UniProtKB/TrEMBL annotation:
Any Pfam family hit: Aldedh
Organism (species): Neisseria shayeganii 871
Domain Aldehyde dehydrogenase: residue ranges: 18-468
Keywords (A to Z) from UniProt: NADP, Oxidoreductase
Name of protein: Aldehyde dehydrogenase family protein
Catalytic machinery residues: 245
Gene: yneI2
Transmembrane segments: none
GO MF, one annotated term: aldehyde dehydrogenase [NAD(P)+] activity
Length: 472
């Protein structure tokens, strides 16, 4: 991917129709009509009216949390249907789609059960007088979201916003419109009033106009570095609070004292899950020399024995990529890496004629001047680096423009903890692959973005943390 003058990856935005094209069958399943400017205005008017109504008041929190509880129930009842929308919109294996819906249910329940505690006033030291910080809603939040976890990405913004009393308007990725519509439907079915959550099929220009609107007070984007740099720039120009959850180039470190077989098995899942289309996927394996031979053998064996097939068939173990374009972009990246001197340990194997499948690949011998060294491969391509000692692990891990997550496997947890504290990312997992649950904050540093979603930190991103002091 070329770099702009600012060093940020650039990728031209190609205007896409809001359309489900099944990446396994290539069939156009459903096309949605884009929303007009008048419809956008109606959504903002409804959201703003709701924000100004009793619905958003702190005294009404219990009712909003009840909506989240009902949302968890509705999603539980409709789990299978929702999971199928994911698999048909973007090709995820059905078992993983069910897992994603379950994560959404857990997030809705977590904020339903903990919202009141997380947003309770916090007492501060009695210096000027009795002091505390209250948490108030701030107004409409715009969410711009990607297709790789088409429900989970939405609920990460929607659940804390509903708990806090912030209405949400959403621009979802154009290739997952059935999921986009279904999320609005289940939130309404759970009893949320008009304006609490509105899905909009809109263009980048309409996104920019929404950000500029005075009724909108926050912008949450999850997506690529490219979209993040544009949308964060628009939010900055209008002095709007923003959170950015962007790309990653996470390391998966295996130290010489690790249980190598367990680490390798975890590493395979950490790279191939969701056909490798995960921001926190294990994109760079960094393995110490003593563990390298066994690790490489197990990984190569597993990468070459995946079962590529219908995402709705439980027997498939590798899903197609989300679109033809995603597959073509990844192939270009892989070819460029090899043309610049990288060695392919496996990859470019035959794939089924039907479906956007990409044969899992492992690259090694990637020099620092190879474009692949700094790029995010958003698909089933792993990079393998073999190093000698812990300092080399840290130097290589931190030689990245990104800083999202990372994993360290070691037989000595204290040693792993020391390394974890030296790695410049927002999250590090020891002796387990990267994961995300409702209770734990998620986010990164450097070009992986800023701000956090989920947990206690996530719900405080878009609230007015208001200090009140009563004189002594
Ligand atoms: P993307 O192209 O940036 O798309 C994300 C969203 O931004 C989509 O809704 C897209 O709409 C929209 N968008 C793109 N350009 C825009 C513009 N100029 N103005 C307004 N909206 C715009 O991302 P992607 O390639 O689909 O997703 C993969 C990326 O997301 C990877 O880099 C991945 O690492 C990252 N990601 C990060 C996290 C995290 O939590 N850190 C989680 C998941 C994914 P269209 O679909 O209409 O283009």
């Amino acid at each position: 991917m070329p770099l702009s003058g600012t060093g940020v990856c650039i990728k031209e935005h190609i205007k896409m129709a809001y359309q489900t094209r099944n990446p396994y069958t290539d069939e156009v399943v459903k096309t949605f009509t884009p929303h007009t400017d008048a419809e956008v205005e109606a959504a903002l008017a409804a959201g703003h009216a709701l924000y100004k109504s009793d619905w958003a008041a702190p005294a009404n929190m219990a009712a909003r949390l009840d909506t989240l509880r009902r949302l968890a129930d509705v999603m539980t009842e409709r789990k299978e249907e929702l999971a199928r929308y994911i698999s048909i919109d973007m090709g995820k294996l059905i078992g993983q789609s069910r897992g994603e819906v379950q994560s959404c249910i857990d997030i809705a329940r977590y904020y339903a059960d903990n919202g009141a505690r997380l947003l309770a006033p916090v007492p501060y030291p009695d210096v000027l007088g009795e002091a505390w910080v209250e948490h108030h809603p701030i107004g409409i939040i715009l969410a711009v979201e990607p297709w790789n976890f088409p429900f989970y990405q939405l609920i990460r913004v929607a659940a804390p916003a509903i708990a806090a009393g912030n209405p949400v308007v959403v621009k979802h990725a154009s290739n997952v419109p059935q999921c986009a519509q279904a999320m609005e439907d289940v939130i309404r079915e759970a009893g949320a009033p008009e304006g609490a959550y509105t899905n909009l099929f809109i263009s980048p220009d309409q996104v920019a106009a929404i950000i500029a609107d005075d009724r909108v007070q926050g912008v949450a984007l999850t997506g690529s570095e490219y979209a993040g740099s544009i949308v964060a720039g628009q939010a900055g120009a209008k002095l709007k609070k923003a959170t950015m959850e962007l790309g990653g180039n996470d390391v998966f470190v295996v130290l010489d004292d690790a249980d190598v077989a367990r680490a390798a098995k975890t590493a395979v899942g950490a790279r191939l899950y969701n056909a490798g289309q995960v921001c926190t996927a294990a994109k760079r394996y960094i393995v110490q020399a003593g563990a390298a031979e066994e690790f490489t053998r197990i990984v190569l064996e597993a990468f070459q024995s995946v079962v590529m097939g219908d995402p709705l068939d439980e027997a498939s173990t590798l899903a197609p990529m989300s679109s033809k374009r995603a597959k073509e972009d990844l192939q270009q990246q892989l070819d460029r890496a090899v043309a610049n001197g990288a060695k392919l340990l496996c990859g470019n194997a035959p794939v089924p004629a039907q479906g956007q499948f990409f044969a899992p690949a492992v690259l090694t011998d990637i020099s620092r001047d190879n474009p692949a060294y700094f790029e995010e491969f958003f698909g089933p391509v792993a990079q393998l680096y073999v190093v000698e000692n812990d300092d080399e692990v840290v130097a290589l891990a931190n030689d990245s423009h990104y800083g999202l997550g990372g994993t360290i496997f070691s037989g000595d947890v204290e040693r792993a903890k020391r390394l974890a504290s030296r790695i410049e990312t927002g999250m590090v997992f020891i002796n387990q692959g990267g994961d995300s649950v409702a209770e734990l904050p998620f986010g990164g540093v450097k070009r992986s973005g800023f701000g956090r979603e989920l947990g206690d930190l996530g719900i405080k991103e878009f609230v007015n943390q208001k200090l009140v002091v009563v004189a002594k």
